[in-house]
Amino acid sequence: MAGRVVDAATLQPLSGAQLVIEGSTSGGLTGTQGRYLIQNLPPGTHTLRVVLIGYGPVSREFSAQPGETAVVDFSLGRSALELDAIVVTVTGEQRKRELGNAVATVAADQVVGAAPIRNLADLLQGRAAGVQLLNSSGVPGAGSRIRVRGASSIALSNTPLVYVDGIRVNSRASEFWQAVGQDASRIEDFNPEDIESIEIVKGPAASTLYGTEAANGVIRITTKQGLPGPPRWSAWVESGLVQDPNDYPLNYAGLSNDAPFESECLLEYVDLGLCSQTGIESYQVLNDPALSPTDTGSRSQIGLSVQGGSERVNYYIAGEIEDETGPFSLPMPDRSDLERRGIPITDEVERPFQLERKNLRVNLNAQVADQATAAVRFSYLDSHTAFTANDNCLCGFMGSALIGGSNPGEAWGLQAPAQTFGRTLSQDVQRVTFGTSLNVRPQPWLELRGTGGVDYTNRVDVSFIARDLGVPGPDLGAKGTGFANTWQYTLDLGGTASFDLTQSVTSATTLGAQYFRHLFTGTDAEGFDLVNGASSVGVAAETSAFEYQDEDRTFGVFVDQLIGLNERLFLNVALRADDNSAFGRDFDLVFYPKAGVSWVASEEDFFPDWGFVDQFRVRGAWGESGLQPRSEDPLRTLNAEAITDPSDLTVSGVSIGNVGNALLEPERSSEIEVGVDADLFRGRLGVELTYYAKSTNGALVQQPLAPSLGSSATRWANIGEVENRGFEAAVSSVLVDGETVRWSVSASGSKNTNELITLGDDVDSFGGFFRFEPGYPLGGLWALPIQGFDDANGNGIISADEVTIGDELAFAGSGFPEENLTLSTNVTVFGGLTLFGLLDYRGDFVSLNFTEFFRCVNVGICRAAVDPTAPQEDQAAAIAGLPGPRSTLWGFMQPADFWSLREVALSYRFPESLAARIGSSSLSITLSGRNLATWTDYGGIHPELEGRGAEADFGTLEGFTVPPARYFTLRLNVGF
Amino acid sequence: MTTKRLFVSLWPLWLASLAACDGLLEVVDPDLVTPEQVQGERGAELYWAGALGEFARAFSSGTGGQAVYGGLLADEFYLVGTFNTRIQVDQRAVLDVNNGTLLTEYRQLHRGRVATANAIDLLEEFPDPNSRISEMWSLNGYTYLLFAEHYCSGVPFGQAPNDTDPIFGDRVPTSAMLETALSRFAAADAANSGSADQAHLASMGSARAYLNQGDLAAAAAAAASVPSDWRYLVRSKTGGTSNQRNALFELNHSQRRWSLSDVEGGNGVPFRSAADPRVPWADAGPTAADGSSTLYHQLKYDSWESDVTLASGIEARLIEAEADLAASGTDWLMTLNTLRTDNGIAGDLTDPGTSDGRVDLLFDERARWLFGTAHRLGDLRRLIRQYGRAEADVFPSGAFPGGGVYGVDVNLPIPREESANPLLSDVTGPLCLDRDA
Contact, A76 vs A58, CB < 8 A? Predict the structure, then answer.
């Protein structure tokens, strides 16, 4: 059959529309003229369905006759809501209109290539209300923290589950071994070029059927699938620059003729009359082009994909090589130092921050029988990340510069780049994700599904310090190697029986069972005191080794019942039961119920005929989900050690370790969400509003044990409670929709209120400056408050006794942004030139500027500690931070609200005729930039830093952290 | 039955399938050692060795032990570090809240108690040719002794057995702790399968308990059979996974936070100025951890592997001397001088001529013989309790070198974290029954 698909309003052809013969794998895509062709259809009556994002789907029945070509044309009307869009759920494919909960969808295949997307975090950032991506470090390969609707757990991970094509995958942060504050996140391993769409299931109201571990939400990634037809090739080449646009704070020194304060005449000494300043010196090596390691880095990508196939078997195959070098290089003086020491200057010493990735994906779909389809998904990643110890460590070049001297002769505080870059670290990852699925429809009313697979990650971390490198302390050299393997197995079986109970009432009953197994093993070996030239643990004078393993398994079953009334009112109830290897011995099953309602009110006869309302839906859902304890938490364990007995012999011994808790349960989160969706002004304006309230009961807290038990100090107990409440809103609008200009804007935002309700009756509030205090956000920033300051003696210097500090700890602010807003716009002129921009706002949070605290208090080189013209507020913060009975970090807990011009892209799609000259069917070029500008009143280097890496679950802390880089890239996309 | 009805009827079976899937969820973690894995005779040996390690940490290694903190509260050591929680002990003004030092040592002593008790339960199932059960009973008894000597009245004693809920204890007065200690030493005697060492250890434990009860005659009788050259050592070691390093050396030499006292607070023993070979020392100069103080090394424990004497024949002779003195006997001075002579200590002691003087001389000898072995604090309390001395005349008093004055503590309090004990949750304020000597 053949035909054409056009816009119902403008009659313009629609390319990229997907056509599927229902109940088969046959189908196709429309080309640039909106035309399609589907061949080799069996004779008979078929239903052809057309879907395209931004438009409502349309289905038409037709009859295929032997030797004839059926011609069926389609006109698609705009639909911002896409209520009939298909979403993938645990119960199979469902239409959005049937769901009582909000599902955020990111049309990845439309974003990648048109926006500066480096990784999955970039793809998700700012594109789904309620989903927060928080950067940690700006080094290539550093992971991001992902939060959906706030943090629910005090002690366990708050990262959502991730599925790729139905296979649960390892998405946990994994530290860069010995890299201090830099972590990778395994979710970044998945290539955004291979992704077709991402759906985010945000909370327990929706994630119930994903069972234990789904309380933090679920991210479902669907990779590209081939469609029948001749091979369609797509190639892309991207090249770009990576820059460090940040200004770094100067290091100050007060000069004096008064010994011994000649270069350390701090304001507090001046105030005490110990010295008088003759001048002030300031300098920052990171801002000095002659000595700074700051350099321009580079980024490149080259990839090729092909899709096509027959009506029975189709494929998608893609490969890509990605390369990125960070914006830092070894300065010339340091090169000379290493050469003098005889230390080889390898590429990774010269450019310490590098990322190389090679991706391969093969997706196959097959019609294995008349009523059965199968799919195979395979991906392989080989990545190499090189870096140096940095972030939250004075051992790194960033720390050394920021506590360095106030003149070029004393630029570096502890170690010069020769030593920091000479200390090489790397992480090599090989990852295979393999999945198979089988869909069988033995009866028209019955669909059976099975999915199984494994996600395997092999990781090797290497650290090396050459002997006589010049590092402080015993300069004897060290080598470390860590091996880690992670397996994540998935088996998911289900069946849905769909009936028409009456002419207007439909029913779908789903039964399902799932089994997951996560296994992690690792071995570390370290060697110290190497001979010159040696770089192996095996030849070190002192060696040590460690081995570790962690495993957990989950088995769950569920039943789900969906009732539809007149295709516009849908009621859903479900129940899931789970058992898990980490549940306490005396705790058996956990049950998670769920209920939802969705009502497309605008399709009711009685709905008012407001001309501007195309669709209006009301939805609500309630559900529960959980988070399992760690595998060792419920267990009583023993500590093993070597003991010297009275005979002076060394023997093995055991004693009480963890007391354990046989009653340990999963944390249970219960959520209710309500919302409305509206499609207005003939698809020109779409609005989605959601309110949610999530309560986590039985949160794991370390319950103190009476010391007279003679056991461990604490044990885990389900005694905590956390609440999250919030609003989410998404608005999209086509402001101008003409033949020459199309202009659309969208905004999505969320407000989350996170609150620790209780830690249990006998658990006190705990935490240092990231504190867990009932009535406040988890891990909020707390300190003794600076209540005021006054230069009472009028000398322009704030002294310790001129600062008023409160007696009780006070709440400075949330460590995570509670407000998020993303604004994006897309302008297309003459059908070929497109300008895209994305502006990101994070608000209502505080960051601990630990960098400045350390510079002021521990080193005394910040402006506030040296310069009498420094703002008195800053002076007060510095003096109040000095050691003493009332020392406080309050002045360094700074509001970190910011706006970021996150993405800008200018794309041009060449006319078909021009593309054809090089034999291509489509040709486009995109110039884009990322992290172009940041506006903030935050006093530190950048408000978007987390010095403790992607594993830090709470709070935001800047600690000598590499800030985000700016990217400029040029990309060429060719289709043929 | 139609296929449809069959499908719908399956869902109860679906749920029931969970019950059959326990095997799928079995996980073996080689990183973890669980009680189920430590069974049988070999397991009992492992618990016995582990109990030795826990007792060693409670007594003289790990983070310090009773030998260290008892000496700090008394007059053997003074602090040249900066940790406020330790300063409180040295200053004899110990807060029972937010004091991690107090909590750690208190918990560790309970760990030693429970570990020895757990070892007894397992060892009793098997033949015991080495009298390890006896040893465990004795060490268990010593934990009660140390609680009685170092802590206030009112310490509770509980346990967390493997297969039952925790068993919490109510507050126990000091007198009851000593009775319990005696019962443990009696059990050690009964369980002894012919070991002279274990017999002596139990005897010395009993003697020390009687001493604390003020029954000097019974104490002397218990100690009489112990040879003068016998001793029981708490072993120290370094390396590997053990935290069994001698803490007196660690804190004094390595961390430089403890210094050897000399007439501390005006009442202390002149450990340095007397130049007694039983308490050798050296001036390490202004190298203390506080950045300015002179550090005085004790040289009795000169490495991380220096063992610490828990009980000895010397102690037995000292008890006999004290009992003789209390009975107005005439042998006490000869006993003390014989000890000196037999161990190369030059110069005989002479009778001071007064009752108080004789007591002072005896306790001075005890202080030097038993330096750094967790005896001194108990002795100072006995001087108050049994010999009618005033606290300000016995313990370091007056101006505190770190500023302010010494407090009035004569023992360590129960940390407030013990309020997690449900039997004590209604108690407001300090948990001690009293803070008497």
Answer: yes
Tell me the residue range of the domain where A410 lies: 229-245+291-779+815-845+896-975
Last residue of a domain, one of A77, A101, A123: A77
Per-residue pLDDT at B123 = 95
Please tell me the distance from the alpha carbon of residue A853 to that of residue A888, in angstroms, as a whole number: 10
Helices B40-59 and B132-150 cross at an angle (nearest 10°) of 30
For testing contact with chain A, the best of B24, B198, B307 (most A CBs within 10 A): B24
pLDDT given for residue B4 in this prediction? 47
Question: Do residue A708 and residue B237 have CB atoms under 8 angstroms apart?
Answer: no
Q: Which of residues 367-396 of B touch A (CB under 8 A)?
A: none
Has residue A921 got a pLDDT over 90? no
CB B304, CB B250: distance < 8 Å: yes
- Residues of chain B positioned with their CB less than 8 A from the CB of A559: 11, 14-15
Residue A906 has which token pair? 């200018």
**Per-residue pLDDT at A180:** 62
Domain boundaries, position B84: 38-420
CATH of the domain at B194: 1.25.40.390
Give me the pLDDT at residue A698, please: 95
The domain boundary, picked from A77, A104, A127, lies at A77
B8 contacts A632? CB cut-off 8 A? no
Per-window interface: B 197-216 vs A, CB < 8 A = 197
State pLDDT tens for residues A779-788. 999 999 999 9
Chain A: nearest CA to B228, how far in angstroms?
Answer: 19
Q: Residue A527: which residues within 8 A CB-CB, separation 6 or more? A: A478, A479, A480, A536, A537, A538, A539, A540, A541, A542, A543
Instruction: Tell whether A609 is covered by a domain.
Output: yes
Write the CA distances from A625 to A575, A594, A596, A733, B201, integer angstroms: 10, 9, 14, 34, 58
| pLDDT at site B1 | 43
Q: Strand pairing of A638-644 and A650-656?
A: antiparallel
**Using a CB-CB distance cutoff of 8 angstroms, which residues of chain A are in contact with residue B28?**
551
Name the residue among B14, B56, B111 with its Cβ closest to that of A710: B111
Say whether A643 and B244 touch across the interface (CB within 8 A). Answer: yes
A16-38 as b/e, with b when 16 or more CB fall inside 10 Å? ebbbbbeebbbbbbbbbebebeb
Q: How far apart (Å, rounded) are the C-alpha atoms in residues A738 and B100? A: 72
Contact A656 B114 (CB under 8 A): yes
Q: Searching chain A, which residue's CA lies closest to the CA of residue B422?
A: A706
Closest in B30, B52, B420 to A653, CB measured: B52
CA-atom Rg of chain A in angstroms: 30
Contact A947, A850 (CB under 8 A): yes
Residue A648 sits at the chain B interface (C-beta within 8 Å)? yes
Tell me whether 0.95 is exceeded by the ipTM: no
CB proximity list for A604: less than 8 A, separation 6 or greater: A568
Rounded CA-CA distance A431/A382 in Å is: 7
Helix/strand/coil for A464: strand
Of A446, A509, A710, the CB nearest to B113: A710
Give all strands of the β-sheet with A893-895 in edge-to-edge order. Answer: A893-895, A846-849, A957-958
Q: Could you tell me the CATH number of the domain that includes residue A351?
A: 2.40.170.20
- CB contacts under 8 A, A 241-260 vs B, are none
Contact state of B114 with A709 under an 8 Å Cβ cutoff: yes
> A883: which chain B residues are within 8 Å (Cβ-Cβ)?
none
Is A710's Cβ below 8 Å from some Cβ in B? yes
> A122 phi and psi, to 5 degrees?
-60, -35
Q: How does B247-275 read in b/e, with b if 16+ C-beta sit within 10 Å?
A: bbbbbbbeebbbbbbbebbebbbbbbeee
Is the CB of residue B280 less than 8 Å away from at least one CB of chain A? no
